Amino acid sequence: MKTEMRRNGEIIVVTIPMMVKKRGGRKLIIAPPGAEETTRPRDDTLAKLVAKAHRWLRQLESGQFASMRAIAEQEKIDESYVAKVLRLTLLAPDIIEAILNDRHPDVLTWRELAKPFPMEWEKQREQWGV
Question: Which residues are paired to 26 by β-bridges?
């Protein structure tokens, strides 16, 4: 971080190099390489979706819900959304762990996971660089 201060009347100018990236629908400020590492704000979007997917799967397996349509009706959401969320239960265990610990690559977003993805765990790792 380069701090530059100039007196220009009563104004002090501070210059901080940074990048702004979208992640999970939010904007994050990314420090340049070599800058002091700080804790980034946690984005729980994917973690919440993974938890929801596993809850819905348990409810289907236990018979609490008979189908994805029943979940969709109960939650008042589209059945295709339920199907996309339920697919998250097919992610490799280490990818799920990375998501839950907020250590997944920036490319791994809900928009990316809502698309069809390979069922083979090794191919998932290759696709997203995990």
Answer: 23
**The pLDDT of residue 44:** 84
pTM of the predicted model as reported, rounded to 2 decimal places: 0.68
Outline where DSSP puts E strands in the chain: 7-8, 11-12, 19-23, 26-30
Count of other CB atoms within 10 angstroms of residue 53: 20
Asked if residues 30 and 20 have their Cβ atoms less than 8 Å apart, the reply is yes
Classify residue 67 by its DSSP letter. Answer: S
pLDDT tens per residue across span 74-97: 999 999 999 999 999 999 999 999
Question: Which residues 6+ apart lie within 8 Å of 72 measured at CB?
Answer: 78, 79, 81, 82
Q: How far apart are CA 3 and CA 41, in angstroms?
A: 23
Helices (H) and strands (E) in the chain, counts: 6, 4
Q: How confident is the model at residue 17 (pLDDT cuts 50, 70, 90)?
A: confident
Which among 43, 56, 26, 29 has a CA at the least distance from the CA of 98?
43
